[in-house]
Write a structure and sequence with these properties.
globular, 9 helices, binds adenosine monophosphate, three-stranded antiparallel beta sheet, alpha/beta, 284 residues, six-stranded parallel beta sheet, 38% helix
Length: 284
């Protein structure tokens, strides 16, 4: 497996790896790889001729006061994971080679970037869209694999890829959860044992909502209130609980078709996000 640390070297290697008869896959990550990331890499290696895993904690998507400095970094173990899983290349650029002095170009997807996490993390999605475009430009993938865990990110990147005619197929991958339901996240490493137990409330509330909707509840306000009550009981500070259209991310008041319920909540100092598909009972 090659380990590459600049966009220029990555582009050279990508030109060699990219072939017409077998797709080149990209799995963008910020490292601290866990089973969620591994599911993306496994899917990519099963579907592509060669796979690049990028490992880059992108400073542009962290606002001042967020956890850029303390974000878990396990680089050597991540390389080993990529190697074991059959990646052709780990692309791990330094921040200084991604954003050298004078860097001044940004990608904005203002509509899809505004709601949900966008209204709580200033500049976050501008940083995400920009880095993913730069990763596409260096890695030249045919396909890129993203988790539904970051649902807003997935929808927004699909929009960017379409709007800018990037010719990359965005492949959504399901959320991988621990046995007790909690969605795997690199940030779970911040949780104490007691917080880890309280964090279960997030996925429990989401799965309860899914059941409630499947049983016939249609009114978002009731479902959201029940979720807020459960999170409050777990001592969680909530950024948002919303039910949105899966494509436009606009709020849905009455659930008449598939919808996405999304949560961002703090357990202690750790901000966690999770989401779930809601499907109303078929009354036809
Ligand atoms: P991150 O390293 O957190 O930026 O995540 C890199 C990619 O892995 C993103 O596409 C995430 O959505 C995806 N991912 C993270 N956690 C999970 C999970 N629990 N299940 C599925 N995909 C995940």
């Amino acid at each position: 497996m090659k380990v590459v640390d600049t966009p220029q070297k990555m582009r050279k290697l990508a030109e060699f790896l990219r072939r017409d008869d077998a797709p080149l896959g990209l799995v963008p990550t910020m490292g601290a790889l866990h089973e969620g990331h591994k599911s993306l890499i496994a899917r990519a290696t099963s579907e592509c001729g060669a796979v690049v895993v990028s490992i880059f904690v992108n400073p542009a998507q962290f606002a001042a006061g967020e956890d850029y400095d303390t974000y878990p970094r396990t680089f050597e173990a991540d390389l080993e994971t990529c190697r074991e899983m059959g990646a052709a290349c780990a692309y791990a650029p330094k921040a200084s080679s991604m954003y050298p002095g004078g860097y001044d170009t940004w990608v904005d997807v203002p509509g899809l970037g505004a709601p949900l996490c966008g209204s709580h993390r200033a500049g976050h999605f501008r940083g995400v869209a920009t880095v993913v475009l730069k990763l596409f430009s260096a890695c030249l993938p045919h396909r890129a694999y993203f988790g539904e865990k970051d649902y807003q990110q997935l929808v927004l990147l699909r929009r960017m890829t379409h709007d800018l005619d990037l010719g990359v197929e965005i492949v959504p991958c399901p959320i991988i959860r621990e046995e007790d339901g909690i969605a795997l996240s690199s940030r779970n490493a911040y949780l104490s044992a007691e917080e880890r137990l309280r964090a279960r409330a997030i996925s429990v509330a989401l799965f309860d909502a899914k059941k409630t909707v499947a049983a016939g509840e249609r009114f978002s306000v009731a479902i959201i209130q029940s979720c807020l009550d459960k999170l409050k009981k777990a001592g969680s500070r909530v950024d948002y609980v919303e039910i949105v259209d899966p494509a436009t991310l606009e709020r849905v008041e009455t659930i008449n078709g598939a919808a996405r319920m999304a949560v961002a909540a703090y357990i202690g100092e750790t901000r966690l996000i999770d989401n779930i598909l809601l499907e109303p009972r078929d009354e036809a």
